[in-house]
Design goal:
- This protein has 249 residues and is mainly β.
- 10% of the residues lie in helices and 33% in strands.
- The protein is built from three helices and 14 strands.
- It has a six-stranded antiparallel beta barrel.
- Strand 4 and strand 5 (54-55) form a beta hairpin.
- The chain starts with 10 loop residues before the first strand and ends with a helix.
- Residues 32-238 form the Peptidase S1 domain.
- It is found in: Secreted.
- It holds the Pfam family Trypsin.
Amino acid sequence: MHYQFHDIKFQAAVGCHIENRKDDADIAWVGGGSLISDKIILTAAHVLWSPDYGRIRYALLGTLNKKDNTGLLLNVINTLQHKLYNRKLNNKMYDIALLTLHERVKFNEFVRPICLPVSDRKINSELIIAGWGEINNKAESSEKLLTGNIMENNVSCSNRLKNNFDPKTMICAQGVYERKDSCKGDSGGPLMAIMTNLCCSYSIEGIVSFGQGRCGDNPVGVYTRVTAYLDWIVQNAWPDEWKKFNKKI
């Protein structure tokens, strides 16, 4: 991936607490997420628990550099994964979750939410991934937010992954011009598209879920398809509004 898109203001880094760390770096940034309201971050279910550091406790907003002290550091006080998600299964279904922050975020020139993929949106066919994950399988993550352009290609995943790929609930995508791919540490981050009918705004089309083989060597990534879970997202992120809406129907 490469450096770009300084107007990505909804991107979050999510992290765990490191016990007994001798220096000040007591947070391990293990994945990403997307701010969808003033208190809720959308991410992947498999990111909620790190085998090395335990549960997600922190979220960082408002910065392109995860080591920048000017970013907005928040506590995660509640996590909710889809009830049908099962970490032990290999099919990666229902890989979606919500994080609740300890306080409401004030939107400003550095922090704002991403749009959910409503039915009347018009988007570019070229999709964008972003994250602070590993670079070229070097086992070290990027300090600066990286992005890459990819295109949906569900035929590729249907051929490679067989029964582990469901095009109704997943998006398969790969590099447009180069071997672009998401990698370890990008999980939970957004697969987004620029909306052509709403100036300078992004729609979150997918969530980084899993890949096959080494990042970039086999550059096909699988993303949770957000449109398949819109009702679940709204019901849990805005429960009061959801109840009012259903009473009117």
